[in-house]
Amino acid sequence: MADGNQVWKDPDIGAVRVLLEQFSAIEQPGQDWATRRAGMDAFGDMSPLPDGCEKVELTVAGIPCEKLTPAGADQTKALLYLHGGGYCVGSPKSHRGLAARLAGEINAPALVPDYRMAPEHPFPAAVEDAVACYRHLLDEGVAPGRIAISGDSAGGGLTLATALAIRANGLPQPGCLFAISPWANLAQQGAAYEVLAGVDPMLTKAGLDEFAATYLNGHSVSDPLASPALADYAGIAPLLIHAGGAEILASDAIAVAEKAGLAGVDVRVEIWPEMIHVWHAFFTQLGAGRRAISEASAWMNARLG
Protein backbone atom coordinates (compact mmCIF):
# COMPACT_ATOMS: atom_id res chain seq x y z
CA MET A 1 0.00 0.00 0.00
CA ALA A 2 1.35 3.38 -0.93
CA ASP A 3 -0.75 6.44 -0.22
CA GLY A 4 2.02 8.83 -1.22
CA ASN A 5 0.95 12.38 -0.55
CA GLN A 6 -2.73 11.45 -0.34
CA VAL A 7 -4.69 13.87 1.82
CA TRP A 8 -7.68 12.29 3.53
CA LYS A 9 -10.78 14.20 4.55
CA ASP A 10 -11.29 11.96 7.58
CA PRO A 11 -8.97 13.13 10.39
CA ASP A 12 -8.03 9.61 11.56
CA ILE A 13 -7.94 7.32 8.55
CA GLY A 14 -4.45 8.28 7.40
CA ALA A 15 -2.94 7.21 10.72
CA VAL A 16 -4.85 3.93 10.62
CA ARG A 17 -3.55 3.21 7.14
CA VAL A 18 0.00 3.86 8.39
CA LEU A 19 -0.69 1.46 11.26
CA LEU A 20 -1.77 -1.21 8.81
CA GLU A 21 1.54 -0.93 6.99
CA GLN A 22 3.20 -2.34 10.13
CA PHE A 23 1.21 -5.56 9.89
CA SER A 24 1.12 -8.26 7.27
CA ALA A 25 -1.85 -8.13 4.92
CA ILE A 26 -4.89 -9.97 6.25
CA GLU A 27 -4.47 -12.57 3.51
CA GLN A 28 -0.80 -13.25 4.49
CA PRO A 29 0.08 -15.20 1.32
CA GLY A 30 2.64 -17.96 1.68
CA GLN A 31 2.03 -18.55 5.40
CA ASP A 32 0.40 -21.67 6.81
CA TRP A 33 -3.04 -21.43 8.37
CA ALA A 34 -1.79 -21.81 11.95
CA THR A 35 0.53 -18.82 11.54
CA ARG A 36 -2.19 -16.74 9.93
CA ARG A 37 -4.61 -17.59 12.72
CA ALA A 38 -2.10 -16.59 15.39
CA GLY A 39 -1.58 -13.28 13.63
CA MET A 40 -5.29 -12.58 13.45
CA ASP A 41 -5.78 -13.43 17.12
CA ALA A 42 -2.98 -11.04 18.04
CA PHE A 43 -4.97 -8.23 16.44
CA GLY A 44 -7.66 -8.81 19.05
CA ASP A 45 -5.28 -7.79 21.81
CA MET A 46 -5.45 -4.22 20.49
CA SER A 47 -9.06 -3.90 21.69
CA PRO A 48 -9.49 -4.88 25.35
CA LEU A 49 -12.91 -5.62 26.81
CA PRO A 50 -14.86 -2.61 28.09
CA ASP A 51 -14.94 -2.11 31.84
CA GLY A 52 -17.54 -4.32 33.48
CA CYS A 53 -17.95 -6.66 30.50
CA GLU A 54 -17.90 -10.30 31.63
CA LYS A 55 -16.38 -13.00 29.42
CA VAL A 56 -17.46 -16.62 29.89
CA GLU A 57 -16.35 -19.59 27.81
CA LEU A 58 -19.02 -22.18 27.05
CA THR A 59 -19.87 -24.93 24.59
CA VAL A 60 -23.02 -24.76 22.48
CA ALA A 61 -23.99 -27.86 20.48
CA GLY A 62 -20.37 -28.94 20.58
CA ILE A 63 -19.16 -25.52 19.39
CA PRO A 64 -16.74 -23.55 21.62
CA CYS A 65 -18.12 -20.06 22.21
CA GLU A 66 -17.54 -16.93 24.23
CA LYS A 67 -20.39 -15.11 25.91
CA LEU A 68 -19.70 -11.42 26.43
CA THR A 69 -22.08 -9.75 28.86
CA PRO A 70 -21.89 -5.97 29.31
CA ALA A 71 -22.60 -4.59 32.76
CA GLY A 72 -26.36 -4.29 33.24
CA ALA A 73 -27.18 -6.08 29.98
CA ASP A 74 -30.81 -6.84 29.15
CA GLN A 75 -30.96 -10.63 29.38
CA THR A 76 -34.09 -10.76 27.20
CA LYS A 77 -32.01 -9.70 24.19
CA ALA A 78 -29.04 -11.32 22.45
CA LEU A 79 -26.42 -10.59 19.85
CA LEU A 80 -25.09 -13.51 17.80
CA TYR A 81 -21.76 -12.25 16.48
CA LEU A 82 -20.00 -14.12 13.66
CA HIS A 83 -16.33 -13.22 13.28
CA GLY A 84 -14.58 -12.56 9.99
CA GLY A 85 -11.43 -14.10 8.58
CA GLY A 86 -12.26 -15.60 5.21
CA TYR A 87 -13.80 -18.73 6.77
CA CYS A 88 -10.22 -19.87 7.46
CA VAL A 89 -8.85 -17.61 10.21
CA GLY A 90 -10.25 -15.55 13.07
CA SER A 91 -11.84 -16.49 16.37
CA PRO A 92 -13.80 -15.01 19.27
CA LYS A 93 -10.46 -13.70 20.58
CA SER A 94 -9.58 -11.81 17.39
CA HIS A 95 -12.96 -10.07 17.33
CA ARG A 96 -13.64 -9.84 21.06
CA GLY A 97 -13.26 -6.06 21.25
CA LEU A 98 -15.63 -5.33 18.36
CA ALA A 99 -18.24 -7.85 19.51
CA ALA A 100 -18.14 -6.49 23.06
CA ARG A 101 -18.46 -2.90 21.85
CA LEU A 102 -21.53 -3.79 19.79
CA ALA A 103 -23.00 -5.75 22.69
CA GLY A 104 -22.53 -2.80 25.00
CA GLU A 105 -24.15 -0.38 22.57
CA ILE A 106 -27.27 -2.54 22.22
CA ASN A 107 -27.17 -3.53 25.92
CA ALA A 108 -27.34 -7.26 25.22
CA PRO A 109 -25.17 -10.33 25.87
CA ALA A 110 -23.20 -11.44 22.82
CA LEU A 111 -22.67 -15.07 21.85
CA VAL A 112 -19.53 -15.38 19.71
CA PRO A 113 -19.02 -18.89 18.32
CA ASP A 114 -15.65 -20.33 17.40
CA TYR A 115 -17.33 -21.92 14.39
CA ARG A 116 -15.59 -24.59 12.34
CA MET A 117 -13.29 -23.27 9.59
CA ALA A 118 -11.60 -24.45 6.43
CA PRO A 119 -9.45 -26.17 5.36
CA GLU A 120 -10.22 -28.63 8.16
CA HIS A 121 -13.97 -28.02 7.91
CA PRO A 122 -15.01 -26.51 4.57
CA PHE A 123 -18.44 -25.26 3.47
CA PRO A 124 -21.10 -25.59 4.85
CA ALA A 125 -19.68 -26.24 8.35
CA ALA A 126 -19.65 -22.55 9.32
CA VAL A 127 -23.29 -22.12 8.31
CA GLU A 128 -24.34 -25.22 10.24
CA ASP A 129 -22.59 -23.99 13.39
CA ALA A 130 -24.11 -20.52 13.15
CA VAL A 131 -27.62 -21.96 12.83
CA ALA A 132 -26.95 -24.26 15.79
CA CYS A 133 -26.02 -21.25 17.91
CA TYR A 134 -29.17 -19.43 16.84
CA ARG A 135 -31.23 -22.48 17.84
CA HIS A 136 -29.47 -22.39 21.21
CA LEU A 137 -30.57 -18.81 21.82
CA LEU A 138 -34.16 -19.74 20.94
CA ASP A 139 -33.97 -22.77 23.24
CA GLU A 140 -32.70 -20.49 26.01
CA GLY A 141 -35.95 -18.58 25.73
CA VAL A 142 -34.79 -15.49 23.84
CA ALA A 143 -37.59 -14.35 21.54
CA PRO A 144 -36.46 -14.32 17.89
CA GLY A 145 -37.46 -10.68 17.52
CA ARG A 146 -35.04 -9.82 20.34
CA ILE A 147 -32.03 -11.41 18.61
CA ALA A 148 -29.66 -9.50 16.33
CA ILE A 149 -27.23 -11.40 14.11
CA SER A 150 -24.13 -9.52 13.03
CA GLY A 151 -20.72 -10.23 11.58
CA ASP A 152 -17.88 -8.75 9.60
CA SER A 153 -16.23 -9.71 6.30
CA ALA A 154 -16.73 -13.47 5.91
CA GLY A 155 -18.76 -13.19 9.11
CA GLY A 156 -20.91 -10.61 7.34
CA GLY A 157 -21.50 -13.07 4.53
CA LEU A 158 -22.14 -15.74 7.14
CA THR A 159 -24.70 -13.45 8.81
CA LEU A 160 -26.62 -13.39 5.54
CA ALA A 161 -26.19 -17.12 4.91
CA THR A 162 -27.39 -17.86 8.44
CA ALA A 163 -30.59 -15.89 7.89
CA LEU A 164 -31.16 -17.81 4.65
CA ALA A 165 -30.52 -21.14 6.39
CA ILE A 166 -32.83 -20.14 9.25
CA ARG A 167 -35.57 -19.58 6.68
CA ALA A 168 -34.81 -22.92 4.97
CA ASN A 169 -35.05 -24.70 8.33
CA GLY A 170 -38.45 -23.20 9.07
CA LEU A 171 -37.20 -21.19 12.03
CA PRO A 172 -38.39 -17.65 12.80
CA GLN A 173 -36.23 -14.83 11.56
CA PRO A 174 -34.24 -12.75 14.07
CA GLY A 175 -35.16 -9.18 14.83
CA CYS A 176 -32.48 -7.78 12.52
CA LEU A 177 -29.23 -8.39 10.68
CA PHE A 178 -26.14 -6.16 10.59
CA ALA A 179 -23.53 -7.09 7.98
CA ILE A 180 -20.20 -5.26 8.20
CA SER A 181 -18.16 -5.23 4.99
CA PRO A 182 -19.77 -8.53 3.97
CA TRP A 183 -17.92 -10.93 1.70
CA ALA A 184 -21.01 -12.13 -0.11
CA ASN A 185 -19.94 -13.27 -3.58
CA LEU A 186 -17.05 -15.71 -3.48
CA ALA A 187 -16.51 -15.25 -7.22
CA GLN A 188 -15.12 -11.75 -6.48
CA GLN A 189 -17.22 -9.87 -9.02
CA GLY A 190 -18.13 -6.20 -9.24
CA ALA A 191 -16.74 -2.83 -10.20
CA ALA A 192 -15.02 -2.20 -6.86
CA TYR A 193 -12.59 -5.08 -7.40
CA GLU A 194 -11.08 -3.16 -10.31
CA VAL A 195 -11.70 0.45 -9.34
CA LEU A 196 -10.38 0.10 -5.77
CA ALA A 197 -7.64 -2.49 -6.39
CA GLY A 198 -4.92 0.08 -5.72
CA VAL A 199 -6.76 1.80 -2.87
CA ASP A 200 -7.81 -1.06 -0.57
CA PRO A 201 -4.99 -1.53 1.99
CA MET A 202 -6.26 -4.85 3.32
CA LEU A 203 -7.77 -7.07 0.64
CA THR A 204 -6.93 -8.22 -2.88
CA LYS A 205 -8.91 -10.27 -5.35
CA ALA A 206 -6.11 -12.84 -5.52
CA GLY A 207 -6.08 -13.25 -1.75
CA LEU A 208 -9.85 -13.66 -1.60
CA ASP A 209 -9.68 -16.19 -4.42
CA GLU A 210 -7.39 -18.32 -2.25
CA PHE A 211 -9.71 -18.13 0.75
CA ALA A 212 -12.73 -18.92 -1.43
CA ALA A 213 -11.11 -21.99 -2.98
CA THR A 214 -10.10 -23.25 0.47
CA TYR A 215 -13.56 -22.74 1.96
CA LEU A 216 -15.52 -24.08 -1.01
CA ASN A 217 -13.30 -27.16 -1.41
CA GLY A 218 -14.79 -27.85 -4.83
CA HIS A 219 -18.34 -26.80 -3.95
CA SER A 220 -20.15 -24.48 -6.35
CA VAL A 221 -19.45 -20.79 -5.81
CA SER A 222 -23.02 -20.14 -6.94
CA ASP A 223 -24.60 -21.77 -3.89
CA PRO A 224 -26.48 -18.92 -2.14
CA LEU A 225 -25.29 -20.15 1.27
CA ALA A 226 -21.72 -19.64 0.05
CA SER A 227 -22.36 -16.52 -2.01
CA PRO A 228 -25.45 -14.89 -0.48
CA ALA A 229 -25.26 -12.00 -2.94
CA LEU A 230 -26.94 -14.48 -5.31
CA ALA A 231 -29.78 -15.41 -2.94
CA ASP A 232 -33.51 -14.78 -2.89
CA TYR A 233 -34.13 -12.62 0.20
CA ALA A 234 -37.90 -12.92 0.43
CA GLY A 235 -38.95 -13.02 4.07
CA ILE A 236 -35.52 -12.21 5.49
CA ALA A 237 -35.17 -10.00 8.57
CA PRO A 238 -34.48 -6.25 8.33
CA LEU A 239 -30.94 -5.74 7.13
CA LEU A 240 -28.31 -3.03 7.61
CA ILE A 241 -25.13 -3.21 5.52
CA HIS A 242 -21.99 -1.13 6.04
CA ALA A 243 -19.07 -1.03 3.60
CA GLY A 244 -16.10 1.26 3.15
CA GLY A 245 -15.61 3.46 0.14
CA ALA A 246 -11.99 2.27 -0.03
CA GLU A 247 -12.58 -1.49 0.04
CA ILE A 248 -13.11 -3.92 -2.81
CA LEU A 249 -16.03 -5.58 -1.02
CA ALA A 250 -18.15 -2.47 -1.58
CA SER A 251 -19.50 -4.26 -4.67
CA ASP A 252 -20.69 -7.17 -2.55
CA ALA A 253 -22.57 -4.81 -0.23
CA ILE A 254 -24.33 -3.11 -3.11
CA ALA A 255 -25.23 -6.42 -4.77
CA VAL A 256 -26.80 -7.76 -1.56
CA ALA A 257 -28.76 -4.57 -0.98
CA GLU A 258 -30.18 -4.74 -4.49
CA LYS A 259 -31.26 -8.36 -4.11
CA ALA A 260 -32.77 -7.74 -0.69
CA GLY A 261 -34.53 -4.56 -1.73
CA LEU A 262 -36.08 -6.16 -4.79
CA ALA A 263 -37.36 -8.95 -2.53
CA GLY A 264 -39.16 -6.44 -0.33
CA VAL A 265 -36.77 -6.56 2.61
CA ASP A 266 -36.33 -3.56 4.92
CA VAL A 267 -32.73 -2.94 3.84
CA ARG A 268 -30.31 -0.06 4.25
CA VAL A 269 -26.82 0.03 2.73
CA GLU A 270 -24.23 2.66 3.65
CA ILE A 271 -20.92 3.19 1.86
CA TRP A 272 -18.70 5.28 4.13
CA PRO A 273 -16.26 7.49 2.19
CA GLU A 274 -12.53 6.68 2.64
CA MET A 275 -13.25 3.90 5.10
CA ILE A 276 -11.38 0.61 4.87
CA HIS A 277 -12.46 -2.98 5.35
CA VAL A 278 -14.23 -3.41 8.72
CA TRP A 279 -13.13 0.02 9.94
CA HIS A 280 -15.38 -0.56 12.96
CA ALA A 281 -12.66 -2.83 14.40
CA PHE A 282 -10.37 0.21 14.69
CA PHE A 283 -12.78 2.06 16.98
CA THR A 284 -10.04 2.86 19.49
CA GLN A 285 -8.15 4.86 16.84
CA LEU A 286 -10.90 5.85 14.44
CA GLY A 287 -13.76 8.20 15.25
CA ALA A 288 -15.67 6.94 12.21
CA GLY A 289 -15.44 3.43 13.67
CA ARG A 290 -17.08 4.56 16.89
CA ARG A 291 -19.76 6.46 14.97
CA ALA A 292 -20.48 3.50 12.72
CA ILE A 293 -20.95 1.20 15.72
CA SER A 294 -23.18 3.70 17.53
CA GLU A 295 -25.35 4.43 14.51
CA ALA A 296 -25.72 0.75 13.64
CA SER A 297 -26.59 -0.04 17.24
CA ALA A 298 -29.31 2.61 17.25
CA TRP A 299 -30.71 1.02 14.09
CA MET A 300 -30.65 -2.44 15.70
CA ASN A 301 -32.23 -1.23 18.94
CA ALA A 302 -35.10 0.32 17.00
CA ARG A 303 -35.87 -3.14 15.59
CA LEU A 304 -35.23 -5.22 18.68
CA GLY A 305 -37.78 -3.29 20.72
UniProtKB/TrEMBL annotation:
Coiled coil: none annotated. It comes from the Bacteria. Keywords: Hydrolase. Residues 79-280 form the Alpha/beta hydrolase fold-3 domain. Pfam families: Abhydrolase_3. The active site is at S153. PANTHER family: AB HYDROLASE SUPERFAMILY PROTEIN C4A8.06C (PTHR48081), ACETYL-HYDROLASE LIPR-RELATED (PTHR48081:SF30). Belongs to the 'GDXG' lipolytic enzyme family. This is Acetyl esterase/lipase.
